[in-house]
UniProtKB/TrEMBL annotation:
Keyword DNA-binding: yes
Official protein name in the record: HTH-type transcriptional regulator LeuO
Origin: domain of life: Bacteria
Keywords, ordered alphabetically: DNA-binding, Transcription, Transcription regulation
Length: 326
């Protein structure tokens, strides 16, 4: 037996489940309830994990536990390994969504959650009440080894990118969107109903996923700004699409935003949604998955459900006219 194999054989793989729930809950009692074991058994598992990693993992602080730096590094790894193990042992079995007890993990942007999340969540609750949906937020700077990243989860929802053109990856179209400009409703451009490229170049900006120096060439927003020939004066940088409109309202700032998201928040926040001048590229969201999952009946059911739900989004046409705010 080779050294890595011997090491794996000597591990209690039940500790993986304990580790996942302890890191999720940051509470021994709640983790025990999630797993279906006693609180002393969960405490014993935590002790064994602490010895194995030579780290506290959960550090006691006033008001509860917090993750240690090592534990924070383990969060995504253990989620991926547990998801892969579930798929491995489910392979070849008939999948009945009405009685299934398993989880599906998707890597998504918070924008996608706003647009697709409610309908997907409702469909899962109605058709597969025992299924757990795990949504991990994509970061624009996530691992360059996208093939390995997707192999450990059930899929990712994102527009096409050159780095996704790999033989082991599969994809299918979901829904379309387009970029619009958002400004506060009191901004002079709201009354004018339009912005020019020169005006955009002179305005302060809110930009998601922009590094402190320069602009990340992999970020969709950056590609659009480059396409428009803009080098914006960035006043606010944020790691979220959903945060953008809240950082525009009540200011003289401007931002690019996906229209489907802008329409959700514009009236409530008092924002104006204006056509983007120039020729911004379209947005075409796709579901990406690893080819290893092609033969998994549970995964086929899950991705068919996502495509079906996305179809209801696509049926809501994009506006011909843009809101002018209040």
């Amino acid at each position: 037996m080779t050294a890595p194999t011997a090491r794996l054989a000597n591990l209690d793989l039940n500790l993986l489940v304990s580790l996942r729930e302890l890191l999720r809950e940051r509470n021994v009692t709640r983790a025990a309830a999630r797993i279906g074991i006693s609180q002393p058994a969960a405490s014993a598992a935590l002790s064994r994990l602490r010895r194995h990693f030579d780290d506290e993992l959960l550090a006691r602080r006033p008001g509860g536990y917090v993750l240690t730096p090592l534990a924070a590094q383990l969060v995504d790894q253990v989620e991926g390994v547990c998801s892969a193990a579930e798929r491995l042992f489910d392979t070849g079995h008939r999948f009945d969504p009405a009685t299934a007890r398993r989880g599906f993990t998707l890597l998504v942007a918070d924008y996608t959650i706003a647009v697709l999340g409610p309908a997907l969540s409702s469909a899962l609750a109605a058709r597969a009440p025992g299924v757990e949906l795990r949504l991990r937020l994509v970061r624009e700077s996530f691992s360059a080894d996208i093939g390995e990243t997707i192999r450990l989860i059930d899929g990712m929802i994102a527009p096409h990118a050159i780095r996704f053109e790999r033989p082991e990856l599969r994809s299918t179209g979901l829904f379309s969107d387009r970029w619009v400009c958002v400004v506060d409703a009191s901004h002079p451009s709201a009354a004018a109903g339009a912005l020019t490229l020169d005006e955009l170049a002179a305005m302060p900006w809110v930009v998601p996923f922009a590094p402190d120096r320069g602009m990340s060439a992999s970020a969709p927003m950056t590609r659009q700004l480059n396409r428009l020939g803009l080098e914006p004066e960035i006043r606010v940088r944020v790691e979220s699409y959903l945060s953008v409109p809240y950082l525009v309202v009540g200011t003289d700032r401007v931002a690019l935003l996906q229209e489907r998201l802008a329409r959700q928040v514009a009236d409530r926040l008092g924002l104006a949604v204006l056509a983007c001048p120039g020729e911004p590229g379209p947005i075409a969201e796709r579901l990406w998955w690893h080819s290893d999952l092609d033969a998994d009946p549970a995964h086929r059911w899950f991705r068919d459900l996502i495509v079906e739900v996305a179809g209801t989004v696509e049926q809501c046409p994009l506006s011909r006219h843009y809101l002018s705010g209040r």
